[in-house]
Amino acid sequence: xxxxxxxxxxxxxxxxxxxxxxxxxxxxxxxxxxxxxxxxxxxxxxxxxxxxxxxxxxxxxxxxxxxxxxxxxxxxxxxxxxxxxxxxxxxxxxxxxxxxxxxxxxxxxxxxxxxxxxxxxxxxxxxxxxxxxxxxxxxxxxxxxxxxxxxxxxxxxxxxxxxxxxxxxxxxxxxxxxxxxxxxxxxxxxxxxxxxxxxxxxxxxxxxxxxxxxxxxxxxxxxxxxxxxxxxxxxxx
Length: 237
Hints:
By secondary structure, the chain is an alpha/beta fold. 33% of the residues lie in helices and 20% in strands.
């Protein structure tokens, strides 16, 4: 633990690194050991038993956190024509067509979620390298490419705390669950919603143990192992 702050070392003393905690215990412990001066984000990390190189074993989806993420989500919409009025009425923060594509192409990424109507996909395809790295590229599978008549619902869902999850190259899924300042019950509700969504997204090509390990952490905190049995029981309701 060389180089760690005194507060970090004191917080870790509350953690038994040999124990796997139940979801309820882990959420409570995450709040106790958070030591930063800002409101840290509580994060979930899942090591999946699938092959990230196998197209039939990809894990990806979206879910709405019941209690949101504890911050205002800045919603950008790539669209044109009459759909601009729909996006404006729904409360999108940034709306535009060609000029907005050029702005993002220049490196501007001051938003949290990007939504697009299908007629814009040919124009924003070139933004893949910029938005893809940030997990911001609109995609039909994540519910962020929608017809104009579905824009209002998509924007509302983004406002409510919709999060997208996907398997990374190391077979891990990382997801935010909310802020340390949230009540334990709210963090647990958000955790349950995420687990349920990940379990439902199990690909047909997945074999063996679907979720290998799971842990919670805060932005500046140590990882807290989750006991998989009660962890997965939550998802079955």
